[in-house]
Design goal:
Pfam families: AAA_15 (PF13175)
CATH class of the largest domain: Alpha Beta
CATH topology of the largest domain: Rossmann fold
Organism: Pyrococcus kukulkanii
CATH superfamily of the largest domain: P-loop containing nucleotide triphosphate hydrolases
InterPro entries: AAA_GajA/Old/RecF-like, Bact_Antivir_Def_Nuclease, P-loop_NTPase, RecF-like
Protein name: ATP/GTP-binding protein
Strand content: 25-35%
Radius of gyration: 21 Å
Oligomer: single chain
CATH architecture of the largest domain: 3-Layer(aba) Sandwich
Number of helices: 11
Length: about 350
Amino acid sequence: MITSLHIKNFRGISELRLTDLGQVNVIVGRNNVGKSSILEAISIALGAVNQDTSVLKEILNRVLKWRGWLKRASVYSLFNTPSTPIELTFVTNNTPFSARFMYPSYLPQAIEKEFGIKFDSETLKNMLSESVEIVPVQIKAGSFSRGALILISENGAITITTSNDELYPIEFPVEFVTPYDMNTPGFIEEVFSKAFKVKSYYKALEIIQEAYPEVEGLSPVPEDGSVLMYVDIKHVPKSIPYYSMGDGFKFLSMIAFLVSSTKNGYLLIDSAEAFHHPRSLEVMVRALIKGAKENNVQVFLTTHSLEFIDTILEYGIEEGVNGRIIYIKQEKGELVHSIETFENAKELREILGIDLRG
């Protein structure tokens, strides 16, 4: 579990330190203060030090497309100041991990200064492609060796270096999702597959049926050379394509599969309240709290909903989960924050009537 986090030069965040994090962390604040950026930074940091390079590739693709895919501009926008590396550092299980992201405009000079070797910038130029890909390399200078990754996208590239001697030191299962993903072709089929493989499909279905009792099941069906998800509804003669269902159902289904299948890892959800009616919202909150406890998962999420905050405080305290409300705001051009336990946050809501969203 991540207990502290340091973000430097990422998107709109020049620098931010968060400490005393809990198992379930709810990030709140007004628009454009950096809530989503914090989730992105955590997911990218976990991906950068992950043993499986496909994790970082998947996360980066999702992060870049969530804000709108503008090729080089999307990569460029990850940096608060282009001439300064992004630094992401976190502590989990008393072990510090960090990753540095360097932009290609000064990449050769940065690598030469960092590692004491020359780096052929033409290599990057020749490796550019239309999609994001991850190329692992091992940079060596004399007896000194250090792992690195090169993120390559169309007309842009970033070198990622880790502070660990090994190239990929450990496995960090991490899922980062946004409302965009529930309508992304193939995504629901992917998370269904993950749940099915670990035999948690029926747990996910139970979560869905709590909010939508008319649903009998979900099934991937081969169609037109691919696989599409269909939904079986009581008293309806034909199965209905998942993508034609309502957004509330789609969002809950996506979260249900992820909550039931993610174990010993991290689940990050942007705009967690999106599209839910009250019953669906309550079901999702219960599932998040229960899943975090049973599957040893740390949860980070953002919300603008006071109803969501009140609901997660109620059930989080009821289940004895170690939870935090993290309030982010801009003050005199600086990003500041406060962190409250669920218990303290509930007192602020009930006794003082404070709107924790800012």
